[in-house]
């Protein structure tokens, strides 16, 4: 067993904390009626989501979907083992945590997509609002609002899981800051170079910024 093992690369940790900040910002801007900033943050979230999906195939070992998305039998077996073995540290997402990642990414994808067609019935409309019927836009708006409540539930469950792990002596939170974990068997993990993530982010950011973020931001001043 190694005293300290690197398990998370910087891009994955950056995604995690940027997601926390953006969800908080989206919640506040929607509640305060700051819809222009809400749209800017939403498009930033869309860029972040697209990066994470690409990084799930091209990134470091522990960031790839193949490393933490397991079949139902494995997940059920892991869940059953919690009763007898308790929480055990993993070099990456455990089978249950892997499913949480997938569900969260899907929920964010739904949130971003429905927001493109949504309207607040006052001043703000998504960029694709005009391409669907009024009934479809109303339905998209309803899903957009309800799905955000679902995302908040997922956030709550995630925080609860982190607290349980911390109580059991598994410092998940610290690892998402440092990228390193203690008390786990060292694996021969391969980490993708940082420049690769920067190139992907630059391309996605440029496209999202030019076509979606800049038109909104330029009208704010």
Automatic annotation (TrEMBL):
List the Gene3D superfamilies hit by this protein, alphabetically. Transmembrane di-heme cytochromes, Chain C (1.20.950.20)
Q: Which residues form the Cytochrome b561 bacterial/Ni-hydrogenase domain?
A: 7-179
Q: State the membrane topology.
A: Multi-pass membrane protein
Subcellular location(s): the record lists: Cell membrane
Record field: transmembrane: 12-28, 40-58, 96-118, 150-173, 194-217
Q: Pfam families annotated for this entry?
A: Ni_hydr_CYTB
Instruction: Enumerate the InterPro entries for this protein.
Output: Cyt_b561_bac/Ni-Hgenase, Di-haem_cyt_TM, Hydrogenase_cytochrome
- Name the SUPFAM superfamilies for this protein: Transmembrane di-heme cytochromes
Q: Which UniProt keywords apply?
A: Cell membrane, Membrane, Transmembrane, Transmembrane helix
- Write down what this protein is called: Cytochrome b/b6 domain-containing protein
């Amino acid at each position: 067993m190694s005293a300290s093992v690197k398990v998370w690369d910087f891009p994955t940790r950056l995604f995690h904390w940027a997601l926390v900040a953006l969800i908080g910002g989206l919640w506040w801007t929607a509640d305060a009626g700051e819809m222009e900033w809400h749209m800017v943050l939403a498009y930033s979230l869309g860029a972040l989501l697209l990066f994470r999906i690409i990084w799930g195939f091209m990134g470091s070992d522990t960031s790839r979907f193949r490393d933490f998305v397991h079949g139902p039998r494995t997940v059920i077996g892991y869940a059953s083992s919690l009763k007898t073995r308790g929480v055990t540290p993993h070099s990456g997402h455990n089978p249950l945590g892997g499913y949480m990642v997938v569900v969260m990414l899907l929920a964010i994808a739904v949130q971003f997509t429905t927001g493109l067609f949504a309207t607040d019935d006052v001043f703000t409309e998504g960029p694709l609002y005009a391409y669907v019927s009024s009934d479809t836009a109303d339905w998209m708006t309803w899903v957009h609002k309800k799905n955000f409540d679902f995302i908040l539930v997922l956030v709550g469950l995630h925080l609860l899981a982190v607290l349980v792990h911390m109580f059991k002596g598994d410092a998940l939170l610290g690892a998402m800051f440092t990228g390193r974990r203690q008390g786990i068997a060292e694996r021969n993990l391969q980490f993708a170079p940082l420049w690769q993530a920067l190139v992907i982010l630059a391309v996605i950011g440029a496209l999202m910024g030019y076509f979606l973020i800049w038109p909104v931001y330029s009208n704010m001043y």
